[in-house]
Hints:
single chain, 2 domains, globular
Amino acid sequence: MKSFIFAFGTIILLMLIIPSTALSQQKYNPKQNFAIIKKGESVKQIEKQAAHIIPSPNQLAWQKMEMIAFAHFGMNTFAGAEIGSGEAPPSEFNPTNFDPDQWVKILKSAGFKMLILTTKHHDGFCLWPSKYTKYSVKYSKWENGKGDVVGAVAKACRKYGLKFGVYCSPWDRHEKTYGTPQYNAHFRNQLRELLTNYGKISEVWFDGYRGPGAKKEVYDWKSFYKLIRKLQPGAVISGMGPDVRWVGTETGYGRNSEWGVVPINVSSVKGLEQSKSEYPIDAVFVPTNIMGEVPGALDKLENAKVIKWYPSEADVSIRPGWFYHADQDSKVKSPRELVDIYFSSVGKNSVLLLNVPPDKQGLINKHDISNLMGMRRILDETFKTNFAEGAKVSASSEKKGFDAVNIIDNKGTSYWTTKDGIDTASIIFNLPNKQTFDVAMLQEYIEVGQRISKFSLQAWDGKNWKEFTKGTTIGYKRLLRFDPVETSKVKLIIEQSRANPTLSNFGLFKLPAEMTSKIKSTEKE
């Protein structure tokens, strides 16, 4: 009996003294992922709700990837087109040296965590031997009709440790049933093949584009979502899906203020209120491109019926086109341009989706490889040394068990926050030595929500504090570039936050010389 009392007392004592976020976390509830705005709620009430909406486990894992690769490859590669007519003969598809291992090894070396393949583009040509069309690799010269691009790429991703995702265009210019009620069943059949024959799928990407004058098809999105949830419950549904939204441009540049929580369109608020589904949003979600500045701003939330954790993905191609064209070999984005895009996407609370289109041989082209490796080298050089590491950290407010030192422990599973009810704070980092830096990195602990809406950074010059940069939102990651600062003491001032702020990571870094001549054009807020 004494041993039982001792053991029980030890457990209670540990629960009281261990400042672990694991003890404060509860099992994820889908209703934590969105909020219904009631009539008459004040701006303050809405702000508080928004601050406590959190990502689903799938969304969180997706955000942590930071960089995802796109591979536009298909009939357009050989026809020299961007949007094929759906009439080019399958015999035209014939890569002479197809090597998905080469793709994946290069992309992994460049820092990408997942590859999304265009399994079917708008022309309707399928990169797998679909049973539901004769417009596929099965009817091409390649591999005597026995090849399967989707299967080979999925296998290479598993072999080298990349996650695998699929893009499948709802708009199909070849399929005869497109524009009729029968098409949705056809599309589901093809989705089912992709979701059951190729192992784990981590992202399903839907393009909502349909060309001018094209037949109109009323897509049964709800049935598509239901099928994906059943067959690939670990996948996020992106683009025209309810998990990940398009940032709004195809430049790779995110907004200076990017919230994870934004208003969404739903067909029935009542249906959402009464839903007992594991995925309550899916049945009422209405796909809409969210455009404009700061869609998560309070004035936008105030006029919404439903707000949701709906993070942004910033897509861009390494070339002017999405498919490979030999005459664009000299127009591949430079390493410096790619690094700037990284800072302006990942560094602005988005995930970067960079398209790297294989050529007619079925290989990533040497020009693309060179510039990808150049980007990787610059990023590695920039982030190899965190000058904030080893700093003595003090904060104007600390909640018990969530100390300021957690910000620089490099764990990612612990964080600092203020005492309840305190939504502004200052944090001082006493660096081990005087350092020169021109990049700052901040990360909120988004597992409990995104909150910070205004902050600034100051350096001690021996007599006074001087501001050297400032920002609005942080979210999963915020990167700021500025003129070089030399100091041994940095102060972070959190001026506005939707609830008590959190930070899980902070860093100070130095760009290599080749990146420092033109760095500030996108950083002024």
